[in-house]
Amino acid sequence: xxxxxxxxxxxxxxxxxxxxxxxxxxxxxxxxxxxxxxxxxxxxxxxxxxxxxxxxxxxxxxxxxxxxxxxxxxxxxxxxxxxxxxxxxxxxxxxxxxxxxxxxxxxxxxxxxxxxxxxxxxxxxxxxxxxx
Length: 132
Fold this sequence. Notes:
single chain; Globin-like; 6 helices
């Protein structure tokens, strides 16, 4: 039986598993491997803190993901398809590993993040292309 997301170790498992999918994904993986060439030793701990704060309100995350993604969009344009795939991979990972109130909250937060970023970053695309 799956358990809920309860600890930082659970968040680390979620984030690590999610990014393993992302790195291998044909739709969005290239952003991480070719465009940005992410330093995973630095990026993963930032994501642990981001999700820990998003789910447990710890105040451990400092950063501006919107600005980072706006800059990414200037280098390699993001599309509705990219946001949909990111959300699909995240939700799939949560569902594979966890079940419960916080797992549901994680998926809700991911949808909110993807929606807001899409609206603010690629708002010039038609509303038919948006994920909501």
